[in-house]
Amino acid sequence: MDFRAADLGRLADDLLRRWESPPPDEFAFDYCLVSGAGVSRWLGQRAGERFGVSAGVRFPRFAGFEAEVLGPRIAPWRPGQLAWVLHRASSSPDSALEPLRGRLAGSHRPHAQLLRVAGRFAAYAEFRPEMVARWRAGEDVDADGRPLGADAWQAALWRAARDLLGEDGAEAYAAAVAGLRSCPGRVAVFNLPALSGRQRSLLAKLAEFGQVDTFQLTEPNALPSTPVEVHLSHGLARQVEVLRDLLAAEFQADSTLTPRDVVVLTPALAPAAPLVNAAFAPENSHPGARLRVQVGGRSAP
Questions:
Q1: pLDDT at site 135
Q2: Beta 212-217 vs 2-5: how paired, if at all?
């Protein structure tokens, strides 16, 4: 089923209502596919508030879910493994691979170069299935059907890797989906960006055997009434102090507001993180120090 709402909280409530009854298999995990760890923590907290506990649910990203459900059939075409296959494929006698071989020979990090190519190939398999089908047939063309020219080595390398593995990434994915005979549990896709064609095919196949739902945020009908404020502050440390003052004022003015309702975004997380931790440290006398603050992100210390 497809659920849509203009408010993320309502969308989460729709999901929890959908999962209110016990799963058909009490030993099976439910899967909620999310965009990142922050969303999974937030949904887990809401589930705990509603049901008293949050358990029996996994929150993978789509790629992790694909790897678990489709198994080893698609593993050789995932970038980490494919890069090693491309090392072997690059030694194919096909003369179209000479530009690549020359580039690798002159590189101090040939594996890093092939890892980037592997990532590109994985994206081709997912988002350019028509193009790689033509490569499979021996046509060296781009997504618009134009000759690849100097980039013809890509199609040659793709075919060489396919010869080594017996199938290419698009074929492996399609065959793995076609071979599915069960759904691992209830599956929910929570507010992900536009899905690729093959991701939709996986969900459609799983829906033949179990419960698969999508939950998507829609644009609200009206713009929010809260105005945008701009505060000029000298230096990052002062910006954090101003943020603390504003948050303390907001929480004092609205008793229904909780820390989990607030997210602060910054393009400079690494230098900001220690300043945030210091500004909101419990030992401070500032009212904002009573707020629970969690710094998250890949570049956080």
A1: 97
A2: parallel
What gap in Å lies between CA 259 and CA 251, rounded to an integer?
Answer: 9
Which residue reads 């203009």 in tokens?
A: 6
Asked whether 190 and 215 are in contact (CB, 8 A), the reply is yes
- Tokens 């491309």 — which residue? 86
Sequential DSSP letters for 169-237: HHHHHHHHHHT----SS-EEEES-SPPPHHHHHHHHHHHTTS-EEEEEE---SS--SSPP-----SHHH
Q: Are 186 and 23 in contact (CB under 8 A)?
A: yes
What end-to-end distance do the CA atoms of the chain give, in Å?
40
C-alpha–C-alpha distance, residues 29 and 108, integer Å: 45
The letter for the amino acid at 185 is G
Comparing 277 with 201, the larger pLDDT belongs to 201
Higher-confidence residue: 158 or 219?
A: 158
- DSSP alpha helix (H) spans, the chain: 8-18, 37-51, 62-70, 79-89, 98-105, 110-127, 129-136, 152-165, 169-178, 197-207, 235-253, 269-279
Q: What is the DSSP letter of 149?
A: G
Q: Could you give the CA distance from residue 12 to residue 190 in angstroms, rounded to a whole number?
A: 8
pLDDT at 300: 40
DSSP conformational letter for 116: H
- pLDDT category of residue 301 using cuts at 50, 70 and 90: very low
Q: What is the pTM of this model?
A: 0.73
